[in-house]
Amino acid sequence: MHSLKNTDLDNLLAKLVEDSITDEELAVLEKILDGDVSAQRRYFHYLDLHMDLQERVTQSKIHLRTRFRLSKWKVVGVAAMFYLWSGLSYFAISGSSGSKSPPFARITGMDGLIEWSAQDGSIINDLSVGDPLKEGILEGLNSNSWVKIELNDGSEAIISGVSKLKFSQDEGSKVLRLSQGYLSVNATPQPEDKPMLVFSPGARAEVLGTQFNVVASPESTRYTVNEGLVRVKRIDDGSVQEVSANHYVVAKLKSEDEFKSVLLKDYSEEWKSEFPRDARRGHLYQPKLTQGILAPHRLRTKPCLWFEKGRKPELHFSVNIGVSATGPLPVRIDKDAKFKVRGRIDTNMFGVDNSNSFLVGFTSNYAHGGFFGKYITKEKVDLSPKENNDQFEIEIPVSEFMKVKKGKLKDSWVLGSSAGLELLDIWFVTYQNIGLEIFDVEIILKDE
Amino acid sequence: MDKTAEFVRLWTQYHRDIERYVYSMIPRSVDAAEVVQVVSVKLWEKWEKYDHERPFIPWAMRFAYLEILKWRQRLAREKLVFSDELLEQLSSTHEELDPLMEMRRKILGQCLEKLNKEDRELVRLRYDGRHGAIKEEAERTGKKMHKLYYALERIRAQLLNCIDLNMSKGGMADA
């Protein structure tokens, strides 16, 4: 292929991988690729290179000396000595791939399918409590997944639901990168010049010792601080907020919203979902009514593989709805609360056993604290489908939800009150594709 | 081995290859991730019919290709998708290239070593998954953002040339 053409193609491919290609440029790319095997090869090699670099860097296969700030080099010998020392410490901790470095963290609790990708590229998904972890990536793969780790300085981090957390050490600072999902951190006091660093979509935070929770979506991150102080920087414009106890801040990508720490003045015991705001997993759509008018959003289950200890993996269908995770006020569970759920089951999709039951679960946090646990119940919907267009409305008292208790071979559900806890999210799971759609969920305190 | 355990093992081992394939046909990461999810479900549904004497990857790729076509049909009105004809051509080129891809990935490691420190740092910043890192770097160094992106384009071309050269030396050029 002629090198000039190669340059044009590379230019378009660079825009493609950077997500900045226009419709017109894509049409040009299509024209170049059409019928030209040589250009198609370049296309595949370019995209493969892009993905390979992504994988290598994520798994830290590109080892680089950490950067020193030039200005500090100018601050005579003391600073130089300090950097020399910190550089040596860095290599002592991260070490070469063959060295016996101490574990970065240890698993202290877990449930559901958790996957760990080590720096050498190996992937492990049969983790157990007590397993030591070096630097790497932890992923929760289902709504029922959670894992708690204790870092080597005594700090604790928990991810819950579908979440991805990379943890490492850089110049003596602990570095946590949450690309999606939920993270709760209880950080022990960190050295002032080496704060714990938390990166997430749209934000970067510095932590010196505190309890805080992070909810990350692809476009934004919400930091809620329960104790201490977290310094959060919005990446887009570099603005910084000091978030103190009982405050939260939301950093969005490409948004002109005000970036300001907000006092968690109060909490609510009643709540109603709002889509798309609260849709965290599932297929969100708006059915068409007559004359092109759209109905309110509905959230339809999406397929997932569901792993539970003591059982074989099963194909399930699920949605996840944010409560305190996405709403403006924390929602606290009252002992008399009820979940009122409106939705629809597609009876045309019923499987062999005409299943019309589903699991409902929720994630809870301590009030003003971190992750507490998951609760679950099974609901059967008595449908008179043809009379009501397959729609249903049910009320589930919160007292019907059972706590998931860990067992060595198998988990069990036990009675356990969730009153007073903060409700983070709710999920619905079906064993078969019964086309479950959720219109809305309400938490009510009285019969209506 | 238990059939379910075997599925989990094979999926864990090869899902990144499927991801790469889907991404190369649907170069929008959000959509590609969605299609990969559907592919995993389809494979699981059809697992009973899988002939364990045959390799997993080609079997899985066939489902992936069908899902890509379905995705294409759903979004046919949008401009940001390739035509069916081009997808077919790409699929056949991919089949031809596939045996050499693993070797190229291995060579990439050597080629990265040859980059200068500044270029490697830029690659690390771009690919460490943190949004805004290039912008921060531009602010820190006083360089223009578009210049950093041009530099990345140049580095990618350099890496591709290095890989091509090494492949040719080893008698494994694909052209």
Descriptive overview:
The complex is a heterodimer of chains A (448) and B (175). Chain A is an alpha+beta fold. Chain A folds into three domains: 56 residues, no CATH class; 194 residues, Sandwich (Jelly Rolls); 174 residues, Sandwich (Jelly Rolls), CATH 2.60.120. Helices cover 16% and strands 40% of the residues of chain A. In chain A, the strands form three sheets. Chain A has a 16-stranded mixed beta sheet that branches. In chain A, helix 1 packs across helix 2 and helix 1 crosses helix 3. The termini of chain A are far apart. About 9% of the residues of chain A have low confidence. With 175 residues, chain B is mostly helical. Chain B has two domains: 81 residues, Rna Polymerase Sigma Factor, Chain: A (Orthogonal Bundle); 76 residues, Orthogonal Bundle (Arc Repressor Mutant, subunit A), CATH 1.10.10. Chain B is built from seven helices and no strands. At the A-B interface, helix 1, helix 2, helix 3 and strand 21 of A face helix 1, helix 2, helix 4, helix 5 and helix 6 of B.
β-sheet strand percentage of chain B? under 5%
The helix content of chain B is over 70%
Give the number of DSSP strands of chain A. 30
Quaternary structure type: heterodimer
Determine Rg of chain B (CA atoms, Å).
19 Å
CATH topology of the largest domain in chain B: Rna Polymerase Sigma Factor, Chain: A
Give the CATH architecture of the largest domain in chain B: Orthogonal Bundle
Q: Tell me the number of helical segments of chain A per DSSP (H or I, 4 or more residues long).
A: 5
Greatest interface and its participating residue counts: A-B, 64 and 63 residues
Largest sheet data of chain B: none
> How many structural domains are formed by the residues of chain B?
2
Mean pLDDT of chain A: 79
